[in-house]
Write the structure tokens for this entry.
Amino acid sequence: MSEFVNYKLQENNFLLTSGRSIFWEEEKTLILSDVHLGKAGHFRKSGIAIPQAVFKEDMQRLVAQIQYFKPVNLLIIGDLFHSTANKEHEFFLKWRNDFLSLPIQLVKGNHDILKKAWYKTAGIVVHENNLSVSDFNFTHDINCCGEKDSYCFSGHIHPGIQIRGIGRQMLQLPCFYFGKRYSVLPAFGKFTGTYPINPKPGDAVFALADNAVIKVL
């Protein structure tokens, strides 16, 4: 088992990481989806005591990957934020000040509902439905993928794969899914659930467990 697995698509190398992201080597771009920053704070505002450590762990993991890969671009394919502004959004702005030289592009997801002025203050370039880069298309919801002849990267559903053991033992783990025409990234934020996927013959699935990327199919 390894923290990284290289997956090749159309002569491009995509490094799948146990940190729930992909590093696109040719474009030197770090790709992630469904961070849901502010979700824990949203629950706390509703009286549910979710510890702030959840937010800090996600941000520390992001910082570690930026420092390791040294990307020239950070591409987030939807749901960077979870809801309206709260204290965790203020912490994000402080974090952003430490990485002002790193361009951030966001393909908006259904939870990205902040005002345009906020994204501008945060130095985030926003794309409404999809973004085309080289021979690939990036979107939050696969139903919004732009060029149909381009391979599409998406998020949104927080994919999970069920792994069965002896007897009735069963685990559902977050995963990367690669089909013939599109892929789905795992949710980067750990304060999220997973939705079980049903792979077809020929699909590739990589589960995430114990800081490792495990090829399942």
Summary: The CA atoms of residues 56 and 91 lie 9 Å apart. The mean pLDDT is 88.
